[in-house]
Write a structure and sequence with these properties.
Layout: H1 10-19, H2 27-40, H3 53-60, H4 64-76, E1 80-83, E2 87-90, H5 101-109, H6 114-138, H7 141-155, H8 160-177, H9 187-200, H10 207-225, H11 229-251
Helix pairs in contact: 1-5, 2-4, 2-5, 5-9, 6-8, 6-9, 6-10, 6-11, 7-8, 7-10, 8-9, 9-11, 10-11
Amino acid sequence: MDKSGIRTRHSGDLIAALSGRNPARNLHSDVLWEMGFAIVSGQYAEGAILPSDSELLDRFGVSRTVLREALKTLAAKGLIEARARIGTRVLPRNRWNLFDADVLAWHFELGPDVRFLRSLAEVRIGIEIEAAALAAERRSDEEAERLIAAVERMAGAESPADFARFDLDFHKVVAEASGNPFMASISALVEMALTAAFTISSPVNEPEALIETVGVHRRIAEAIRDRDPAGARAAMRDAIAQGFDRAAGRMGKPG
């Protein structure tokens, strides 16, 4: 918590740092973060009516305009809905936009959870293996070169943060090379999954894991370069599964 009582945004800042964005820090984003986390963590349960505007204004010490903008943003993410003469209600979890970077970050801010990481991995497998196959069919020569270069940067990474950034760059190029604009919409999902792996267990700190991780990404890059959709699918599936297994295994170890 900071001095105003607003929760510090560890996961949101980390995701932004890994993806090269500068996280905006202002009253609107701080109120948004606090309210969103309170909803995702269950402090405001599904179906509950949020405190009145006057109570929230007293709590955060912000203007009515700032509060309303934060509530509008939460509504756009599917977390709340304002109803006349009823108030602002927290919507059921199945209405939330789980592909939204903030919603994912609020989940992860609760702490690592194997079931949540497994769900992320399953969705990534369902989407990214096809992105890799399409990339093998549609990639340009320049994109193939960028993938190989990203693998080399991963191999030479000296810190977990650098490795995660290069890993994210690699997956973004795969999405671009697929030629399908919808593939880019999963970038928040990939960022969160890589943030989880970076936070829990980075392969940079485990030589054998680093060799394995770089190797499977090299297989993806080479399959895409060689226009081998089946090989790209298989290698991408292995990469995602390895990342989940490493993180889940680390979470199961004491200390």
